Amino acid sequence: MIGQLRSVVIDCPDPRALAEFYAELLGMRIAESETESDWVVLGGPPGHQPRVAFQQAPDLRPPAWPDPERPQQFHLDVTVDDIESAEKAALALGARRLPGGGEGFRVYADPVGHPFCLCWD
Question: Could you tell me where the beta strands, DSSP code E, fall in the chain?
Fold first, then answer.
């Protein structure tokens, strides 16, 4: 092993707003925030995983699932117990349903357009 994963970092126009979306979606807390809010981290301090960080990218060109000209760039798989109630809650937070999905997962976009999946067994 060369190293350990520290954070998954997501570019976005408004790090605070997207961090708040994922804090609610994942049941995590904001652990770090720069005063100008150009860097926000969910989770614990460095060395305590999992951590999801959000950095400011004002000119972000969001993905357009499933268009290969603007690929998904990354995505998170989120395990849920009840897909119907999880979907309702995610949509209420500002997510939107995207085309695609399959047995055991549905595809959504966060408020900035990054895809993520709600998964169940």
Answer: 8-12, 30-33, 39-43, 51-56, 76-79, 96-102, 105-109, 115-119
The reply to whether the predicted model has a pTM over 0.90 is no
How wide is the angle at C-alpha 90 spanned by C-alphas 84 and 95, nearest 5°?
A: 125
Q: Does residue 67 fall inside a structural domain?
A: no
Averaged confidence pLDDT in the chain: 88
The 8-class DSSP code of residue 20 comes to H
**Alpha-carbon span 37 to 100, nearest angstrom:** 33
The CATH number assigned to the domain holding 89 equals 3.10.180.10
Q: What is the pLDDT of residues 21-37, one digit of tens each?
A: 999 999 999 987 766 77
H helices present in the chain, as ranges = 15-26, 83-93
Residue 2 inside a domain? The answer is no
